[in-house]
Specification:
heterodimer; A: about 280 residues; alpha/beta; D-Maltodextrin-Binding Protein, domain 2; 2 domains; four-stranded antiparallel β-sheet; elongated; B: D-Maltodextrin-Binding Protein, domain 2; seven-stranded mixed β-sheet; 10 helices; about 35% helix
Chain lengths: ~280, ~300
């Protein structure tokens, strides 16, 4: 965790000067142009979003036209703008200097919850790649037990055909039993279910002492709000705080800002590399 | 009523603050009220972490005030003695009844599977002849606290919805003072049954968190020594609330810093006792509207001279 130092905060917001500095947002318009204040003829939702951000950040917020997402990434990397919505392809070339901070959770969907793969402790399969051609078992049929974990594996190259066999157990206990019996080489389970599975009821309990976790990760974000990695934590936290509550506090702004996915429910924070699937 | 559990965080706050924006000059410090949880040692670790983390995030000294009872945290935030608090739904509803929009929820926890609530359960000792609420007529029942959501307010409303008047149905009721105390009182035979919170599951699949599990993992009780006879819920999860008369920049920054934590450092998130895969999500007053209605009815009934909690 990297937290802003007081000195960095002072440097950024010294005497309120930087509070008034311009905050520049990429706008993929098909044609590049200089950053500018939003025209009054802009869509109402966009006006509402820029106004909301400007009010909350106490800064002028400008639109920076770029030809495409890749250009937005490069402009962000170079410091020509401060924030952009990027997909994995546009993020990849600039990932050393930029990071994701927010993505969107669709209505009715889960957060990007962490998933893990566990094997028997004595197993020689010690990585996701090492499970190629093996048998895996999921801990149930629900989206949090199968759909999301399966997607997380596919994001890492373990898509259809990677494993020789994929079973779906009725629940985490049944899935763990299949792993322990040797009927499966690995258990694929979300982190919460694993925590419950492995938490005993007595101080001396080590319910999963015979198993080991060989991989853990979240599904890759399909798109995310990206900023430079050297962003001060204060500004990053304020951007996150403003966005995660936008669906409650500024519905028109949220409607426009979330238009890059259908039926968005809310903004969700992300780790720095949410657009990367190593 | 409140005891300061933390003072200025070394390395945070100090001379840089005056120059870093007017909201810091207004705030000068962050005061955070929580209810102490005596049954779970990770709580002390959690509060200490929040004190340090929020201090670093805001650049201000943070004081965490641990209240020994529910009412302490409620009154601290309602009176403006503190800037933020962590309150259960019923406690927030109590603050809302006192000061309305001056206190607002900003975050709660969304569990990995999407749930944003926990449950209320009536438990008995495993060897008790009591099998259901029907067997509890005329028996003694221990509640947690008048301001407890899962240990008082919510189960009583659900009992009424099921045709049971909790004021007359049981032979004797009283407050244990906390979830841990309710379990211990049951263990010691003071009640035939007790109402506590349960979580980490659902009525179909069972539950994996709550005071019994926490106490069992510390070796204080045997988790198999109790049996659940009734469950109600879900109850909206505990809220982080702030005073709305504080600077918006402080509210945004605090909300963002807390929301980012599960993604910035998932190991630490779990280390302070949060469920793995869970994360904070923004909420507002509407999320607690049902509990606010319950609390308002309770308060109106008390003012009318009725017994605590009895429907008017």
């Amino acid at each position: 965790m990297r937290l802003v130092s007081v000195l960095a905060a002072v440097a950024l917001f010294s005497a309120g000067a930087a509070e008034a500095a311009t905050f520049r947002i990429a706008a993929v318009t098909g044609k590049a142009g200089p950053c500018r204040s939003l025209a009054s003829s802009a869509p109402a939702g966009q006006l509402a979003y820029y106004k909301h951000l400007a009010g909350r950040l106490a800064r002028d917020v400008q639109e920076c036209p770029v030809a495409n997402e890749a250009d937005a990434g490069r402009a962000l990397e170079s410091g020509a703008l401060d924030m952009a919505v990027l997909g994995p392809a546009a993020f990849e070339p600039v990932k050393a200097k930029t990071r994701s901070i927010l993505t969107l959770r669709p209505t009715g969907d889960l957060n990007r919850i962490p998933v893990l793969v566990a094997t028997r402790k004595a197993s020689t399969r010690t990585s996701l790649a090492g499970l190629k051609g093996g048998t895996i078992v999921f801990a149930g049929k629900a989206a949090f037990a199968y759909g999301l974990p399966r997607r997380a594996l596919a994001d890492r190259g373990a898509g259809p055909g990677f494993f020789a066999r994929e079973d779906v157990a009725t629940d985490p206990e049944a899935a763990a039993a299949r792993l322990r019996s040797g009927a499966a080489d690995a258990l694929v389970i979300n982190a919460a279910a694993w925590q419950r599975l492995c938490r005993g009821d007595r101080p001396q309990d080590a319910a999963c002492g015979d198993l080991k976790v060989i991989w853990r990760g979240r599904p890759r974000a399909t798109k995310a709000i990206v900023v430079r990695r050297d962003i001060e934590d204060e500004l990053r936290f304020r951007l996150i705080g403003i966005h995660v509550a936008m669906h409650l506090e500024a519905k028109e702004a949220f409607g426009w800002a979330s238009s890059w996915i259908p039926k968005a429910a809310e903004f969700e924070p992300t780790e720095a590399d949410a657009l990367v699937a190593p | 009523m409140l005891a300061a559990s933390g003072l200025m965080v070394s390395g945070c706050g100090g001379k840089g603050e005056a120059a870093s924006g007017t909201w810091r000059e207004q705030m000068k410090q962050v005061r955070f009220a929580v209810r102490g949880a005596e049954d779970d040692p990770t709580m002390a670790k959690r509060w200490d972490f929040y004190r340090q983390y929020l201090g670093e995030a805001t650049g201000l000294p943070v004081k965490v005030y641990e209240s020994s009872d529910y009412n302490g945290a409620i009154q601290a935030i309602a009176s403006g003695q503190v800037d933020m608090a962590q309150l259960a739904a019923g406690s927030y509803a109590n603050a809302d009844a006192q000061v309305g929009k001056l206190v607002a929820p900003i975050l709660t926890v969304r569990q990995a599977e999407g749930a944003m609530g926990y449950y209320s359960a009536v438990i008995v000792k495993a060897d008790s002849p009591i099998k259901s609420l029907a067997d509890m007529k005329g028996r003694s029942l221990g509640y947690v606290d008048f301001n407890s959501t899962s240990g008082y307010l919510f189960p009583r409303s659900q009992m009424r919805a099921q045709g049971i008047d909790p004021d007359t149905y049981f032979g004797k009721t009283s407050f244990a003072g906390g979830h841990t105390q309710a379990v211990m009182a049951l263990e010691n035979g003071q009640f035939d049954a007790a109402v506590i919170s349960v979580g980490g599951g659902n009525p179909v699949d069972g539950f994996t968190t709550g005071p019994i599990q926490t106490m069992a993992r510390r070796g204080l009780v045997d988790a198999n020594g109790f049996r659940m006879i009734w469950v109600a819920g879900p109850v909206p999860n505990v809220a982080f609330v702030t005073r709305t008369d504080r600077p918006q920049a402080f509210i945004d920054l605090t909300r963002g810093a807390l929301a980012a934590l599960a993604y910035d450092d998932p190991d630490l998130w779990v280390g302070i006792g949060q469920a793995d895969g869970s994360a904070m999500t923004a909420v507002d007053r509407d999320f607690y509207a049902d509990v606010i209605k319950l609390r308002a009815a309770d308060i109106a009934n008390r003012r009318a001279g009725g017994r605590p909690g009895k429907s008017s």
